[in-house]
Amino acid sequence: MIRYLPRHFLLPLLYATMAPCLLLSSALADEDPSLPLLEATPEEQVKDPPNYESLYNQGVAAYRDGNYEDARQLFTRSTAVTDRQLEAKARFNLANCEYSEAVTRSSENPEEAIAKLETAISHYRGAIEANPQDPDARANAELAQLLIEQLKQEQEQQNQDEQNQDQQNQDEQNQDEQNQDEQNQDQEQQDQEQQDQEQQN
Asked: If you count DSSP H runs as helices and E runs as strands, how many of each does the chain have, helices first?
């Protein structure tokens, strides 16, 4: 039995800072948590054709463990399946790997997060191509684009704040230098007046 990732999994992560605008479908109703994931031995994986269901299920297990790199590789391999429905789900979850990593990196490295979101959108589009009737892939692609726009706006604001701070520091430095020049001029004038007075006496 093929096991599927819950497609609403990403929403709590993404919308901690953004208001949700739609609800994606939950896990399939016939999924039985008591059933073990299919596992393929290394020998099975090299057979021709590969056991794509097993590869996909291993990808699901890796994803749930937070091992996105292994999940990405397994989902990538399972996209070669001739079953378009399974291919669509593999591409969808491949996009979710990039999406999840983008969310975790959005604060520390927004540029890398944006790059991963753009890759996720590409995979979502691949899922749509494999299954044009899948509304979840379209919805998640739109959400990824919204997050890209938000991160870019935050970057622009941060850059503007840094420029403003630099300008403020420069203005303060210029003002300090001007004040110092005025003080020097006043002191020179006082010294000259004192010298003139001493000469008169």
From this structure: 7, 0
